[in-house]
Design goal:
- Helix 2 packs antiparallel against helix 4.
- The chain is 65% helix and 5% strand.
- It has five helices and two strands.
- The protein is globular, with a radius of gyration of 19 Å.
- By secondary structure, it is mainly alpha-helical.
């Protein structure tokens, strides 16, 4: 049985997508939504300051195993998003999800099926799925 929440979301997007029904519009709006998400994260660092980015070149010991890499690697994010930045970033991510579902609709793809397929691939390949 397909996930009802995911299918309901995809159906709602289908009902609400009126102005941007061209696949070219959806692709460009999707790209814009990703850029707005990136900008919101940058503003959390540069305007608000609730999070910081502390990054430098990582040195990997020659004897490090794949399991060791999980502890060696880090996100470079220090701190936590404040309530305002969390809300803004969630809104922007929601917009990205909207256009992802719209693209699925235009290509007659089911978002839940894509989730399942990706989950199976990730669980099968595990750490050999370097991303």
């Amino acid at each position: 049985m397909k996930d009802l929440l995911c299918d309901e979301f995809q159906n709602t997007v289908s009902e609400l997508l009126i102005r941007h029904q061209s696949i070219l519009d959806v692709l460009s709006k999707s790209q814009e939504a990703c850029a707005r998400t990136n900008r919101a994260v940058v503003k959390a660092v540069t305007n608000c300051g609730c999070i910081k980015v502390e990054a430098s070149k990582k040195e990997f010991p020659d004897e490090a195993s794949l399991d060791d890499l999980k502890t060696i690697m880090e996100s470079h994010v220090k701190g936590s998003l404040c309530k305002n930045c969390t809300e803004i970033i969630e809104d922007e991510l929601g917009r990205s999800l909207f256009y992802l579902a719209a693209l699925c609709n235009l290509l007659n793809l089911n978002l839940y099926d894509i989730f399942i397929k990706e989950q199976k691939k990730l669980s099968t390949l595990r750490v050999f799925n370097f991303r």
